[in-house]
Amino acid sequence: MKLSEIMPYLNEIAPLELAESWDNVGLLAGDPEQEIKKIILAIDLTRSVLDEAKQKSADLILAYHPPVFETIKKVVPGKGPSPYLFETIRLGKAIYSMHTALDLAEGGINDLLADIVGIESPKPLEASVAADSAYYKVVVFVPDKEIECVSNAMFSAGAGVVGKDGKYSKCSFRTGGTGTFLCGAGSKPAIGTRGRFEQVNEIRLETIVSRSDLSRVVDAMLLAHSYEEVAYDVYPLVDNKSYGLGRFGKLKKPISKKTLISHIKQALGVDTVGIIGPETGSVNTAAVGAGSCGSLFKQVIANGCDFYLTGELKHHDALKLQEAGVTAVCVSHSNSERIILKHIAAKLNKKLKPIKAFVSTKDKDPFVWK
Fold first, then answer.
1. Which of 39, 52, 142, 143 could hold 357 in an S-S bridge, CB 3.0 to 4.6 Å?
2. How far apart are CA 154 and CA 173, in angstroms?
3. Are 215 and 237 in contact (CB under 8 A)?
4. 77-96: per-residue pLDDT in tens?
5. Of 311, 319, 272, 273, which Cα lies nearest the Cα of 292?
6. Phi, psi torsion values for 260, nearest 5 degrees
7. Spatial distance between the Cα atoms of 29 and 67, rounded to a whole number of angstroms
8. DSSP per residue over 123-160, as a string?
9. pTM of the shown model
10. Longest C-alpha distance within the chain, in Å?
11. Kind of pairing between the strands at 197-210 and 173-182
């Protein structure tokens, strides 16, 4: 499968337009036309991760943190802000990063952490950009005798899928009516005669299409349609979801801080955490923020949260949380993010068969806590 065919699905998982303006996400190195057979997932592109990619013949490195971030003036071996970029490109391996797009995305890192903590109906701690439309409505006018031919072509290209995990397919709405047109000089009408005003029984066909399938569906529709000039419309559907960094909300049911901290350790696979604030009492309202969430601690306090799970905190920010009586748990930056990798790998293996996606065994948090 070509990289260009994989990228639309990666964009479904983490829409790139969600990323913070300062971030560098998407395809960072590689040829969209290259064939991909194996994908390795890691938080960081390190020497050991690149060696593993070579050993296991991975063609695409899905690195959460963008290895190309600062301005690069030279691409030479072992130097610069991205010391492994030269070798990665020389080996013909592509690099793709999701970073803050995955932080903000529905079903991304922060939603996963919110689920671990037990937050019900989590909301963003800090509102951010609104995503471009994830879905579109395609409307096309078809001669009534061709409706099944055109609709089936569109469905086969991915149109008409509704519901989580595609519970419903071939969904459409059809309305009968009369189409009119006058065939001018040089026209080659499939129906009617040049120079005569025509009235034709047509069906208005409406169906829903995901962003990643839109171009394929429109191409399939145009190919199946008999008209020389096809009348069709594409409408972006408004996404009423709110996007942003972090998550907060009420817990499904109150839980003791001691029990919750023990559960977090087990879920994230860590033995040691940093705890700020009171360790006793129960948690009713909690917040999460993967990685290093900067000023999000202010929103944690403002929203009345009594518990905050994050990767790391600055010293003075930790003091402010402590003074506000908030219990904060720091699990180390990448430890708060790494858990998402196996979930993405599972999605890729399900969607992109026969491509093999796997999580790096060499990708580790740089800190060792004793």
1. 39
2. 13
3. no
4. 776 666 788 889 899 999 99
5. 311
6. -65, -40
7. 10
8. B-SEE-PPPPPSEEEEEEEEEGGGHHHHHHHHHHTTTT
9. 0.72
10. 86
11. antiparallel
